[in-house]
Amino acid sequence: MNLEYLKEFVELAKRLNYTETARALMMSQPTLSKHIGQLERSLKLTLIRRDGNTLRLTNEGGALLPFAYQVLDAVDDFEGKASELRIAPVPKLTISGLTDEGPSTEVLGFLISLLSDKYGAGCIEVKSQYNRNLIDTLEAEEVDVVYDPIPLDETPQDDSLVRLHVSDLHLVAIVSNDHELASRDEVALSDLKDETFAKVEGLYLSRSWGYIEQACERHGFSPKTRSSHCASVAELFSLCASLGNTALVVGSNFGDRLPAGIKPFCKVLHISDSDAAVPFFFVYRKDNDNPVLLDAVRRMAELPTPPLCFGCKDSA
Prior knowledge:
This protein is α/β, with parallel strands linked by helices. Helices cover 38% and strands 23% of the residues. It is built from ten helices and 13 strands. The strands form two sheets. Strands 3, 4, 5, 6, 7, 8, 9, 10, 11, 12 and 13 form an eleven-stranded mixed sheet that branches. Strands 1-2 form a two-stranded antiparallel sheet. It is elongated and about 105 Å long.
């Protein structure tokens, strides 16, 4: 259905005069008559009938006229909203970092539940930034927020960025099934002081190593390490199946993902110390005035710090 023809029908219904209506619409009378005829044919209804020199609405035309007004009003509203959006787009929060790994998806759900009442469920946009320095993406204003463990040595020394503690990922230890600790379900960090840690390099886990090391030092020892390069999760699974006398300390999310075929070779041990966790942060530019970001920060400030904890006994 042609909306212009519908608009012409409404104008003709007001005047019931082709000449006056054509003049008001700045078009010729034959063109107006042709358009009304095309509208009637598309609807398979007669809308206006001529009785001698007088025009009148048919019963069908009169019944449809209020709906025609509604359609045209809706079109006006639609165009008005489109104009508003061109001037002021719908606010949204763009986020990058570890947004598709384990508990990170729960963080996205947390953000949506936090903000959707005001900004709608589509207020979050995830931007994957593979092989990009996360701080560079913030400084280039490509994203609003990075979700990452972000070691302190990677954060600029000035105060241009803010780190907001959002979640803790509790640690587990993975040992070979013939390891003396494998008979237990839980260990303390101090139980690992004489063990050699597999220090994974080449995966996102390497970004967490500094926090693992700090946790050990808080418990009185510096971990002995053996470097293990893993370029993929599959290689990390292979490492779990051949740990020998080393212990792999990782986030509980990875321990939960061990395939059934690897479990006969190793044992996942919960680490009982409450501080045995990797903190994850929202990092954002201090000068970012995105209202969705400011709202998220304000609402999180009203929650416990951190608001989320994965693998923690208290969060079960």
